[in-house]
Amino acid sequence: MREDFAGARLKDILDFTELEKLFKSYSLTSGLDVALYDVEGKAQLAVRKPACICNYIDDSAACAEKIVYSGKKAKELAAPYIYETACGLVMCITALSFEGETAGFIATGPVILWERDDFFEGEFYENCLRLGVDLKEKAFDYSSIRQIACETMTSSAQMLAMMVGYLADEQKRYVKKRLEAARLAPPKGENGRGFGKYPLDTEKELIACVQLGEGNKARSILNDFLGGIFLYAGGDLDIIKAKLYEFTAFLSRAAVEAGAKLESLTNIVKKTAALMLENVDYGDLCRKTVEILEDYIAVVYAGRGNRGASKHMAAAIKYINENYDKEISLDTLAKNVFVSAYYLSHLFREETGVTFSDYLSKVRIEKSKAFLKEGLSVEDAAYKAGFNDGNYYIRIFKKYVGTTPAKYKKSMKES
Question: What is the bridge-based pairing of β-strands 90-98 and 101-111?
Fold first, then answer.
């Protein structure tokens, strides 16, 4: 390994914020845990369920040795490598390269690929005990270990390989394309556009449309989205594929949030993985992306009512009612109910008929009315209800109640 690369850290190569988002989407889509390891087999980033055995033994020297050995095999084979872990389960690992050198490894699992027999729990317990973990003390739930078919593991491995294939190189290719475009492009006018900005707002709107079941609107803006990606990537099919894969991973997560069952996504995930690995032109890529979008719309429509919008709105309303006196932004609320801010904004309009800010203001006004009835001053009622600006409070109060807080308080005393 080159000396200049030996000292490089994975965080210097990868955007960990984006990587974590991708890991979460991958985990939600596949149902498998996933982790990034350095060249010594030490975990640098992991997305795992609380009951995952790796949470207990991840720092084991035996595990690190297995990770490094298997990661090197994956590098040699230039393909995902399925191996048996130190505790006897199965994981799939792939090598992460940067400028031809191994930068680390990404592993998914652990699972079992066979039927459980009467000896499974005993053997697993003994393996973990040798690694210094007493599962009886941990009250470990053996049923948390997932059993999957080899075909599913292979499909997940292909997805993982696709993900690893572009992570380290994407930024480098993008910068190179932008520099080349800047060199060749004519000078910008006052209102001129740059080489290509990723269509993030369109992506958010598209995902929200799928979640809300607005198929016609989703179809109408998909072409703009695909065109935006083409401009962003400068026509580079590798980058286009990478961004579309990332987009479909987000769609999987959004579909589950909207009520789709995980098992209903299996065939879509396989179709997406196959598309990303196929040698196709831009036209085929667009046509098949349209098909995949239609599949997501169909499973969301079929899954309406499983978890769905009402559950998220109920959680949002509960949070507002419990925290109305604090600073609440749409982003803060969305994070607390585990959906995107864009989707939540749509839900407020769809299910309450008003915007998030209007709904929050109405809740605060109702709370302040109660405080005024209790005898609090206008200033105290405003502050206790979450209004930090007295003039704004009076204006909003009059908008919704039709009179000022002072007159309202006086009328309550006279009644």
Answer: antiparallel
Q: Where are the domains of the chain?
A: 3-164, 196-302, 308-414
Rounded Cα gap, residues 371 and 376, in angstroms: 6
CA-to-CA distance for 36 and 10, rounded, in angstroms? 9
Q: Is the peptide bond before 50 cis (omega within 30 degrees of 0)?
A: no
State pTM to two decimals. Answer: 0.48
Residue ranges in 258-355 assigned as alpha helix (H): 266-277, 282-302, 308-323, 330-337, 341-352
Q: Residue 40: helix, strand or coil by DSSP?
A: coil
Alpha-carbon dihedral sign for residues 204, 250, 304, 34: negative
What are 176-219's pLDDT values in tens digits?
Answer: 444 344 444 433 333 333 345 778 878 877 877 777 766 777 77
d(CA 23, CA 165): 14
- pLDDT tens per residue, range 146-188: 888 777 776 776 666 666 555 545 544 543 444 344 444 433 3
Closest CA to 10 of 30, 33, 40: 40
Q: Which residue has the tokens 């098909």?
A: 291
Give yes or no for a contact between 196 and 233, defined as CB atoms under 8 angstroms apart.
yes
Is there a common fold for 3-164 and 308-414? no
- 292-335 pLDDT, tens digit per residue, is 888 887 777 676 554 445 677 778 888 888 899 999 999 889 88
Class of domain 308-414: mainly alpha
CATH code linked to domain 3-164: 3.30.450
